[in-house]
Design goal:
With about 475 residues, the chain is an alpha/beta fold. The protein contains 16 helices and 24 strands. It is globular and about 75 Å long.
Length: about 475
């Protein structure tokens, strides 16, 4: 077992590693074999307060630090990740049940986002705006919001913590990070350790490992943070948004999806099959952008289905440490049970199982379902597991209607021989992101990332980070003398 699970099984507050003072422990398990990785005494409301107060104290000086000096921290953090990549990959495999391929994918993206944070430190620019008043100069400054609270998920915890933490810090803010209870090391302590070793001053990044059963809404309601960046389910996201609005905070919400991959009648079928299988089964389907639904024009449905099912049958399910494994474990037993139960319910409701994957503890072999009734709830909800739903359509108009018939609007893809036809199709979909002749799972450092409808509010990546983690301040200067009516 990696020393990370012993050395980092603590809270990180104001530059100090220390145990929480709660009355119970979060037990960190390997989802593949149930090995106990760590035991972490949870943080209390008092420790959440200490973390936010420390962040507020440290932030003022950090905001005044030359951005070129701030940038050096992220350059060092990037080098540290590169030096420790093998160790970090092992921790991802153990704590998440991520495959070797998934760990490499997550680490690659994390490094790309850190490279963007290096540049982001220099990006805020002010403006001088004309005034209708003689002698007056209007200056608009771009300034940090102050302190940002970040809540990260369990599926890509290292990447998705860094994705908010690094830009917020680069732009002159301080951060308090609350990782998911199932991934406290990869999503929390490990991120803090990287930045500590990179020379980030104490107090600027704090990690509190805790549970709402202990702290309630204290993380959200605390008066210090001005922005809460949350990645997770739409159910929890709705609550986060409500509490933030009640407390006059900005919320950035990256929520779930029910993405569709669409295969038009002129598509390259073999290529579409490869894209669809990856888009559905990457990281056991525990990806917000995953292709929950695969919609195929009836004219090519038979050929596509035959090839899709054949490829899915080749996916190896098992130990994520095995380089040949494609499908590793679901994050925990309750999630595995929920996904397996959804499959059984769909079959009971009339769906046909082209592949009916077996369950072994947290391992779910891939399933492929078709002939779902039009009113099946599975067609409209997010399904976080290795289950593909195949459906047919007749013509583009019906395809557009089916894609949009969901409360979500995160990602999606369409396959066609005519690129402009694909772009025209994409424009009709109510979603934040859509891809032509590709998969549904994409994230790039400088392209706006986010969803519509129940899939979130706001955007991350690139210049949109300025909107998320800074604010504008108008300072006017009267060089002459204003006239007043009295």
């Amino acid at each position: 077992m990696s020393s990370y699970f012993t050395d980092l099984a603590q809270q990180y507050i104001d530059g100090e590693w220390r145990p929480g003072t709660g009355s119970w422990d979060i037990i960190d398990f390997n989802p593949y074999d149930d090995e106990k990785l760590a035991s972490i005494t949870i943080a209390t409301v008092d420790e959440v307060d200490e973390a936010y107060r420390a962040a507020a104290r440290a932030q003022k000086k950090w905001a005044e630090t030359n951005p070129y000096a701030r940038r050096a921290v992220f350059e060092k953090a990037l080098r540290l990740i590169e030096d420790r990549e093998g160790e970090i990959a092992e921790v991802i495999v153990a704590e998440l049940g991520g495959t070797r391929l998934k760990a490499a994918f997550e680490l690659h993206l994390a490094k790309e986002f850190l490279r963007e944070a290096v540049n982001l430190a220099l990006r805020p620019e002010g403006r001088i705006i004309p005034s209708p008043v003689d002698g007056k100069e209007n200056r608009v400054y771009r300034v940090p919001v102050g302190v940002v609270g970040v809540i990260s998920p369990f599926n890509f915890p290292f990447l998705l913590s860094i994705k908010s933490v690094a830009p917020a810090l680069a732009l002159g803010n301080a951060v308090v990070l609350k990782p998911h209870q199932n991934t406290p090391i990869v999503g929390g302590s490990l991120v803090a350790k990287i930045f500590e070793d990179a020379g980030l001053p104490a107090g600027l990044l704090n990690v509190v490992i805790t549970d709402i059963a202990e702290i309630g809404d204290a993380f959200l309601e605390h008066p210090v943070p001005k922005v809460i960046s949350f990645t997770g389910s739409d159910k929890v996201g709705r609550h986060v948004a409500t509490v933030c609005a009640q407390n006059f905070k900005r919320s950035v919400l990256e929520l779930g999806g029910n993405s569709a991959l669409v295969v038009l009648e002129d598509a390259d079928i073999d290529y579409a099959v490869d894209a669809a299988v990856f888009s559905r089964y990457v990281h056991q389907g525990q990806v917000c952008m995953a292709a929950n639904r695969v919609l195929v024009d009836r004219a090519v449905a038979e050929e596509f289905t035959e090839k899709f099912v054949a490829k899915v049958r080749t996916l190896k399910t098992g130990d994520p440490r095995d380089p040949e494994t494609v499908i590793g474990p679901i994050i925990n037993s309750s999630q595995a049970e929920a996904v397996a139960g959804a499959v059984e319910q769909a079959i009971a409701d009339g769906a046909t199982a082209l592949i009916h994957g077996a369950r072994r503890d947290n391992l779910l072999e891939p399933s492929v379902l078709t002939d779902l009734p039009a009113n099946s709830p599975l067609l409209k909800q997010e399904l976080f597991g290795p289950v593909a739903l195949l459906a047919t359509f007749d013509g583009e108009e019906e395809a557009v209607r089916l894609v949009n018939d969901t409360p979500y609007g995160l990602s999606g893809a369409v396959h066609t021989a005519n690129i402009e036809r694909g772009v025209a199709f994409a424009k009709q979909i109510d979603t934040g992101m859509f891809h032509v002749n590709d998969g549904t799972v994409h994230d790039e450092p400088i392209v706006p990332f986010g969803g519509e409808k129940h899939s979130g509010i706001g955007r991350l990546n690139g210049d949109t980070m300025l909107d998320s983690f800074t604010t504008t301040k108008w300072i006017s200067v009267q060089h002459g003398r204003s006239g007043f009516p009295f």
